[in-house]
Amino acid sequence: MTTTNTSGSAPSGAGKRPRQLRNIGVIAHIDAGKTTLTERILYYAGKIHRMGEVHDGTATMDYLPEEQERGITITSACTTCTWAGTQINIIDTPGHVDFTIEVERSLRVLDGAIGVFCAVSGVEPQSETVWRQSERYKVPKLALVNKMDRPGADFKAVLNSMRERLDARPLAIQIPLGAGPDFSGVADLVTLERVTFEDDVVQRDPLTAQEAELAAPWREAMLEALAEHDDALMEAYLGGEAIDPQAVRRVIRAVTLSRALTPVLAGSALRNMGVQPVLDAVCAYLPGPADITPAKGQDPSGGKTVELPPDPKAPLAALVFKVIMEGGRKLVLARVYSGTLREGEDVLNVVQGKKERLGRMFRLHADQKEPLAAAGPGEIVALSGMKLPRTGDTLADPAHPVLLESISAYRPVISLALEPRNTEELDKLNEAVARVLLEDPTLSSAYDEDSGQLILS
């Protein structure tokens, strides 16, 4: 029996310089449990000391008053935690179709994602949308079949739904033990152990005879699928040899990075079941900045393609993926692809062709900020004191300008005429619209000279 205590305390390696980095997003249909999962991740990683609930309006990542009132995620929120020596930057994305652009620009800067599916509803319409968005950006993914404690939960049906509606190749690496009110834990198909969760303690025990019989065909299916992608595992599998769990994990990581298969786990985030194995899987299977194909940019002077290695000593290249207005002040969110961002240094806004000095730099935790002096490849940071950047702009070393691919925006499908009640309110209206346009790249405005109205699309 193996027992791990995770009662809100930071795991081994917390507080030290992380050996590895993961940039992940949590994507799903609305109400699949994304924010609840993120809340539990932060708690078990020691980032927060009390779990908030979405339905109570106390979730850490839903910090806007509108989100707390409605119980939904409206804007993508960033945070950072550490698990087993790995720094994990998390972006919790909205699930509602109206906020798809938030998912789009988040996926543009992520290296991996967790797709969350309701065990009752399976693949839902917005699940398809965000999954295909992640495929467009070639993002490796894990999947979590959440809400296994709900009546009507069906793990196998969700896997079939993933195959049919997402054209995905799900690879179950866990199966639930029981479903609905009888859900009691999961069977780990890699180690053939029963994993249970109680009072923040993860307990691993050998499978009972009945559980081993249940897990046997699932493990065979997992090994067979993995063997197709690895000759050494194929030889051991066909030879009937005992297969070491580390060998299995190695191949799972390889097929995850290549996007050949999608590892699937089971749990119930609301009941605090299955969250720690998700964190373990993020560290074990999803890529870090050095594991993915290096980003490419263009030399603005000649149009030549430039490869951007994730090297802190290389020339700087960073992409602005979001702009937030905080009380009239601009907060710029950027992902560093190459080189190092340093507070107080001059950077070139390649899109606008202008230099600007970096103000203060922070690592975000929802609406809180942790000051940073420098940020290297893979880091997602917030920059204050800058006036020029807009969503999609590239920040680069003035001596080595390079242009990263911008973030595609959706074309408006509806327009609205705005008109102030009097001339005194005209300036206020223009200022308010200008702030909204900075934050949302899908919006555009035009002035209709005939009607004197401002048209917002």
UniProtKB/TrEMBL annotation:
Gene3D superfamilies in alphabetical order: Elongation Factor G (Translational Gtpase), domain 3, P-loop containing nucleotide triphosphate hydrolases, Translation factors
SUPFAM superfamilies per the UniProt record, alphabetical: EF-G C-terminal domain-like (SSF54980), P-loop containing nucleoside triphosphate hydrolases (SSF52540), Translation proteins (SSF50447)
Top-level taxon of the source organism: Bacteria
GO MF annotations, alphabetized: GTP binding; GTPase activity
UniProt KW keywords: GTP-binding, Nucleotide-binding, Protein biosynthesis
InterPro entries: EF-G-like_DII (IPR053905), EFG_II (IPR041095), EFG_III/V (IPR035647), G_TR_CS (IPR031157), P-loop_NTPase (IPR027417), Small_GTP-bd (IPR005225), T_Tr_GTP-bd_dom (IPR000795), Transl_B-barrel_sf (IPR009000)
Annotated Tr-type G domain residues: 19-290
Any single GO BP term: translation
CDD domains: EF-G, EFG_mtEFG_II
The protein's name in its UniProt record: GTP-binding protein
Organism: Fundidesulfovibrio putealis
